[in-house]
Amino acid sequence: AEVVDVVAAWQVPTSSKLCSICNMKALQFATTLSLTATTASAFVPSSSSCSKRKQHSAVSSTSASASTRGIQHDLTFTPPDTLGEGQITEQLCADAAEKMKRVMVPVSKDVSETGYAGISYIHWPAERKTATLPLLLVPGFDSSALELRRLGPQLAKLGVETYVVDLLGWGFTQLDGIKSFSADSKVEALKGFWQIVGGNGEVVVGGCSLGGASVITLAAENLYKADGEEENGFVRGTILIDAQGFIDGIGPMSFLPSPVARLGIKFLQSEGLRNQASQ
Predict the structure, then answer these.
(1) How far apart are CA 124 and CA 160, in angstroms?
(2) Could you tell me whether strands 8-12 and 116-124 are parallel, antiparallel, or unpaired per DSSP bridges?
(3) CA dihedral of residues 228, 233, 234, 238 (deg, nearest 10)
(4) Rounded-to-integer distance, Cα 36 and Cα 64, Å
(5) For 7-11, 87-91, 107-111, 164-168, which range has the lowest pLDDT when averaged over its residues?
(6) Of 128, 181, 218, 257, most Cβ neighbours within 10 A?
(7) pTM
(8) Dist CA 118 CA 120 (whole Å)
(9) Three-state secondary structure along 11-34?
């Protein structure tokens, strides 16, 4: 309720195809939604934060030399080979994979003994100058930033600085050395990502499915407040695409016998189903 009251929250009734942005109608709808959202006051940087916005633009426009600005990319990370090992022929997927990086973000020692976790992401810089805030998007359950490979370039063409970030434990994030992959740990890593990459500048956050649930928590804990409170947040708006943030626990699945639940998980892991969902 707090998120809905303070920021422009969009609950979009969608199919699974819209969540994965896998057809043109879904892409056009999601793009239109983003454009509509950017006309709201919550999606325009406040006058008091113009300097922060300029600082963010400077950081994002020099991603090649990010290490000189305190951003430490994981040098051991190799972008996924979608055309070769992945056997995915879609050129947009290969283009997105080539852009993928992994950055070390601060987390608590409860999440990682080193105090850092490697979070993979794809950045599509805005291709034209606009007054809109950057957009941080989070894919859903057991997915990766490649899920939004078709949406990212379209938003960039419209002048929206777009970051698609993998949830800790999924996508191409660090696994070794991570002690906790809980829901709280995922949100903590998202917050650490924006602290390092975005400098805690004002941003609009969005998420699909379970990514939307993480975004709801991220927004609620880091809301921008126009009244100038000392502990001000950085989230100016949320876009929720079929967000799974309105279910208590795991919902009806809690009534399933364990053998049936395990069978369902195996079905979700099947190569045929995943290939069909990626079409």
Answers:
(1) 8
(2) unpaired
(3) -110
(4) 31
(5) 7-11
(6) 218
(7) 0.71
(8) 7
(9) EECCCHHHHHCCCHHHHHHHHHHH
